[in-house]
Amino acid sequence: MKDKRITLAWTGASGAPYGLRLLECLLAADYHVYLLISSAARVVLATEHGLKLPTGPDAAKAILVEHLQCDASQLSVCGKDDWFSPVASGSAAPKKMVICPCSAGTLASVAHGMSDNLIERAADVVMKERGQLLMVVRETPFSTLHLENMLKLSKMGVTIMPAAPGFYHQPESIDDLVDFMVARMLDHLGIEQGLVPRWGYDQRKK
Ligand SMILES: Cc1cc2nc3c(=O)[nH]c(=O)nc-3n(C[C@H](O)[C@H](O)[C@H](O)COP(=O)(O)O)c2cc1C
């Protein structure tokens, strides 16, 4: 039977709308989402989207359920030290995880196996269990250190997906740009999506 569980981590890189839209799409695709939110991600979410999430996982979940009008039973919000969460152990963790947006800080910690908070631990677990890890890294320009960390992870089978939307689908809004990135993530995860016309099929023409 298909495991319809996934771990999603929001960290403190710019790009909160990507993370929110991805969450919305995963829930719509009937996934159970384990959501991990760093302290910096909460600051970015408030800055970029005006959505203020409290530190407590239960209170944060209540706000997200209200905001997205989703089924509460599909969402688990885990605290940063919630070591008893399923995502903290290879015996129970979902085999798929996305870090979106992914900061240079979390990129470095994951590349070096720090496992110092639940996001880093969950990523470490997915890698050791040979699951699928997608990191939607956002920084510009990239330093040599950032590039080395990405190369190291890529060689270990992690998909590095820079938050760099294309323009060939002729976006008309920021939502179109966000959907471009989220569509590529869903494609990589093997989750059906119809957010953006596919290359060579029904391209928008002006
Ligand atoms: C509004 C805002 C935007 C930020 N944008 C980025 C970014 O695009 N990339 C990045 O690597 N860090 C960015 N930062 C800095 C990170 O949030 C910071 O390094 C933080 O320690 C990352 O912690 P985390 O990985 O635990 O979320 C931003 C911070 C703020 C407040």
From TrEMBL:
Record-linked Pfam families: Flavoprotein
Protein name: Flavin prenyltransferase UbiX
Flavoprotein domain residues: 4-189
EC number: 2.5.1.129
InterPro entries per UniProt: Flavin_trans-like (IPR036551), Flavoprotein (IPR003382), UbiX-like (IPR004507)
Positions with a binding annotation for dimethylallyl phosphate: Y168, R184
Alphabetical UniProt keywords: Flavoprotein, FMN, Prenyltransferase, Transferase
Positions bound to FMN: G12, A13, S14, S38, S103, A104, G105, T106, R138
Function as written in the Swiss-Prot or TrEMBL entry: Flavin prenyltransferase that catalyzes the synthesis of the prenylated FMN cofactor (prenyl-FMN) for 4-hydroxy-3-polyprenylbenzoic acid decarboxylase UbiD. The prenyltransferase is metal-independent and links a dimethylallyl moiety from dimethylallyl monophosphate (DMAP) to the flavin N5 and C6 atoms of FMN.
Catalytic activity: dimethylallyl phosphate + FMNH2 = prenylated FMNH2 + phosphate
GO molecular function: carboxy-lyase activity; flavin prenyltransferase activity
Broad EC category: transferase
Family, per entry: Belongs to the UbiX/PAD1 family.
Organism in which the protein naturally occurs: Photobacterium profundum (strain SS9)
The organism's place on the tree of life at top rank: Bacteria
